[in-house]
C-alpha cells in the first residue's frame, strides 16, 4: 500500500492485540500501516500497549467510537465474539474498512446485521481465522488433489462448548476455516445442517459442504482442551485416490497473513469477503453450539 493507513485497535483483552501491536508498530512488518488508536481496553492495558509502541517510535492514544474521523481502518479484536457487533458497527456505518478478529460474531443475527450495514455504507468487512492461511493447509490440499477429488474431510482441534468466550465459537472457527481452505475457499461454499455427536472429551459435527457443484462430507471434531491441553489442529483428507493427513501448525506470527489479506482487500487487490463467507461459519457453529448440553468445565489453555 502506498499511503499511510491509520488503524484503530478495538478490544485489547486478547493476546491477538499484543501480536497486532508487535507486527504493525514494533516490528513494522507492513510499511505505512500503523495502529494509532487503542480502544475498548482498561487503562492499564492501553498504557502497556502504548508503551511498547512508543519504544518503537510510534505514538498511540486511547480512543473510542468517536474516532471514526481520525482513522482509516479498524481491527476489532475482543476475545468474545458477542462483543464484536457493538464494537464494529459504528465504524462499519461510517464506511471504514473493518477487520473483525475470529470469531466474526457469536450469533447469526449479529453477523447478518454487520454484513447488511457494510453493504449499505460501502464498508470493506473482513473476518477470518489464521488457520485459513496456514502453509500446512495448502500443502495438504495440494497433496490431496494430486491423488484425486476430495470426498471426505476431518478436521480436529481444541474447542470447548462451555468456554466463557461463547463456547464453540471461540476456537471452533479455526476448524471451520481450515476445512474451508482445504476445500478450496470457494466463495460459493455452503454448509448444510450439522449432525452433532457427543463424547466425554469431544463434540463432533458431521456436515455436508457444497462447493463447486460437489458435496463433501466434513467432520469437525472439537476436542475438550481441558482434557487434552496439547491437542493440535489436525486434518485428514480422503480423496478418490487415497488419504493424506497432518497437523496444522499456526506458527508464532499467525496473524501476519490475516493482516495482509485484510490490507489487500482495503487496497482493492483482493476481493472482499461475501455474505456467505462471513455468515455461513457463524450459522454452522451456532447450530453446533445449540446442540450442546454440557456441564461447566475448566477453561481452555489455548490462547487463540
From TrEMBL:
This is Gfo/Idh/MocA-like oxidoreductase N-terminal domain-containing protein. It comes from the Bacteria. GO terms for molecular function: nucleotide binding. Gene3D superfamilies: Dihydrodipicolinate Reductase, domain 2, NAD(P)-binding Rossmann-like Domain. Residues 6-126 form the Gfo/Idh/MocA-like oxidoreductase N-terminal domain. InterPro entries: Gfo/Idh/MocA-like_OxRdtase_N, Gfo/Idh/MocA_oxidrdct_glycsds, NAD(P)-bd_dom_sf. Coiled coil: none annotated. It holds the Pfam family GFO_IDH_MocA.
Amino acid at each position: 500500500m502506498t499511503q499511510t493507513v491509520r488503524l484503530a485497535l478495538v478490544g485489547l483483552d486478547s493476546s491477538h492485540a499484543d501480536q497486532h501491536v508487535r507486527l504493525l508498530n514494533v516490528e513494522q512488518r507492513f510499511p505505512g500501516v500503523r495502529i494509532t488508536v487503542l480502544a475498548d481496553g482498561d487503562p492499564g492495558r492501553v498504557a502497556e500497549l502504548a508503551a511498547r509502541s512508543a519504544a518503537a517510535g510510534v505514538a498511540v492514544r486511547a480512543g473510542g467510537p468517536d474516532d471514526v474521523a481520525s482513522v482509516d481502518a479498524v481491527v476489532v479484536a475482543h476475545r468474545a465474539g458477542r462483543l464484536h457487533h457493538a464494537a464494529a458497527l459504528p465504524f462499519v456505518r461510517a464506511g471504514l474498512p473493518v477487520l473483525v478478529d475470529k470469531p466474526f460474531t457469536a450469533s447469526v443475527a449479529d453477523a447478518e446485521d454487520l454484513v447488511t450495514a457494510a453493504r449499505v455504507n460501502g464498508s470493506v468487512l473482513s473476518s477470518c481465522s489464521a488457520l485459513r492461511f496456514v502453509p500446512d493447509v495448502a500443502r495438504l490440499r495440494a497433496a490431496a488433489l494430486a491423488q484425486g477429488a476430495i470426498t471426505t474431510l476431518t478436521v480436529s482441534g481444541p474447542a470447548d462448548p462451555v468456554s466463557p468466550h461463547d463456547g464453540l465459537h471461540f476456537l471452533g472457527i479455526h476448524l471451520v476455516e481450515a476445512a474451508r481452505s482445504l476445500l478450496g475457499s470457494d466463495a460459493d461454499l455452503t454448509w448444510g445442517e450439522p449432525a452433532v455427536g457427543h463424547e466425554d472429551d469431544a463434540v463432533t459435527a458431521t456436515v455436508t459442504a457444497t462447493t463447486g457443484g460437489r458435496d463433501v462430507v466434513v467432520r469437525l471434531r472439537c476436542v475438550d482442551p481441558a482434557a487434552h491441553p496439547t491437542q493440535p489442529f489436525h486434518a485428514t483428507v480422503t480423496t478418490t485416490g487415497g488419504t493424506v493427513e497432518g497437523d496444522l501448525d499456526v506458527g508464532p506470527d499467525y496473524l501476519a497473513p490475516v493482516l495482509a489479506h485484510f490490507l489487500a482487500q482495503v487496497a482493492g487487490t483482493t476481493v472482499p469477503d461475501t455474505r456467505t463467507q462471513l455468515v455461513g461459519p457463524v450459522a454452522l457453529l451456532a447450530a453446533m453450539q445449540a446442540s450442546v448440553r454440557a456441564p461447566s468445565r475448566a477453561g481452555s489453555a489455548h490462547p487463540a
